[in-house]
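Provenance and format

Records in this collection were gathered into a single text stream. Each protein contributes a sequence line and a token line. The two records reproduced below are adjacent in the stream.
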Amino acid sequence: MNQLIAKIRDRGRSDSKFRKVLSDEVVFTLPDSLEDVVEYTPSTLLEDGQYYAIRSFSSKDYCLDCLKDENFDSADYERLERSDFEKIDFLFSFQENVYFFQNIPKSQLLKKKRLSFGERFSFDRENASIEIKETADAMYFKRIDTLYFYKLSSITSIFPGIDQLHREATEAETTEFLSKEFIMLTNGFSISDVKTANRKRIALALDTLNNFRDEDKTTVFAYIKDYCPDLSGADNSFAVSNETDLKMLLFGIEQRFYTTPVGAERRIANSILKIGE
């Protein structure tokens, strides 16, 4: 039986925050294909038609408890009241043992004037509505315990904690990285100049560096100096004077530079997809 459920924001209540909305309606449809998927990693950008996958999803800390139940039963939930409409956080539809999720921004919950085109034109200034997307923000297949999604930022409010898969470096971590002995800050560049994109790259780079042996660091640093000679500073350090310098250093630590075998063209990989262990 198909069921559409709403999760509401209501911090004052201790009971279930899920409410029944509709029954027996096919709200979402599956994409044409879910064969071309990649395991989620911040270093991989999707191509058209691809989806990220997180397998063994029920074992993750950010998996919702309701997805871990062996038997979904909408009878456990009360009906959504009109007074709850503006509290809706997200929707999920349970269809054929698949959960479809759609995030609902607060901007969608405002009452707006609408001109409807049905059998007759009608003007509506009072009722509120939610636009259902052609494709859900996330799909969870219970049978294979796998979550599919297209954009991490679209599901962070649905699965609390999942944003840690691609997080920004904390202030302390950013300070730690910029204080590394191989970095020389110049031209007044400081931690306050580091924007979100590079803070996310720093979080990844710190993990990468922690897995390097000393000889690995020596090899990678030489590799960076080869591709980015302008970064070479005194005492075998890298001179970082702006966000672009920092980005190039971080790309180097992740070994994103490569040379084409034909033409010897030097390039930067904007996305990385592992093709073997």
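Adjacent record:
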Amino acid sequence: MIRTAFSLLSPAGPGARLSVLIFHRVLASPDPLFPDEPDAARFDQVCAWLAGWFKVLPLDLAVNRLRAGQLPARAAAITFDDGYADNHDVAMPILRRHGLTATFFVATGFLDGGRMWNDTVIECVRRAPGPRLDLGGLGLEGVGQVDIGDVAAKRAAIGQMLRALKYQPLPRRDALVKQLAATIGVSLPQGLMMRSEQVRALRDAGMQVGAHTQTHPILAGLSREHARAEMLGSKQALEQLLSEPVLSFAYPNGKPDTDYNSESVQLARELGFELAVSTAWGAAGRDVDPLQVPRFTPWDRPQWRYALRLARNLRSDGRQVAVRDLVAEAGIRT
């Protein structure tokens, strides 16, 4: 019944609709701080569903066939953002077991021992002794005495701090994160992101690799020159690492007109990217802008609700529906 519904909503040919799913991490075991982040068992379950319901294609092939009016029914593609080590260690073996392929968008500045700013915040709060943190010295509006007495409080504190920091000007954000780490003074993990050889191993296993900037900034907040350097630097680093062209790109955070804008799209075109993905919800139709392909992943646990939300998403083209305040409900990283 589910396959039949998806066939009706996403027929073959000119009327086809492409579902592009987005993931960030697949944890080896559940994390109480992020209960909606898939672990290995959950991702294995989702991959089994996707393999049974959809014809999962490499992203570039799927977009090209979509625009040519030659996409098969129930077509989908799977993507990952950022470049976490568990993409290689946990997600890739599960994908291969189910005969699935995915595209991995890598922020190259964090390879080989780097750590994303949001993970510094997360791990600082995770490791901080409770029951409270005094963060008034950071000078962030609304962030002062923070309760971290239990898992729920730490989860709320992390959300509050990420929201307060995300759209700060880049130099100020980086300075505040360093100040936070110095204030809390805990040992932080060094192996969260992939090593260069793991990126090559993904490619060698039949996965695709795309660019995701160097340091995952909000492109809309940068000068044109700075945004171009971030996008081109990531592309060139991956091309040197893989000895092949890198033609796909994911906008960091990915909300249209908030995290990236028309200038970002123009830069992607000028730099030779042939496709780029956002985090606007929806499914792509034949007239999709290949440099603004929408993506969506349900967060529901029951199979029928997961399928229903995918079906509803197939009815949207991603132009009006973007990830906004629903991110917190969905538990999706951007």
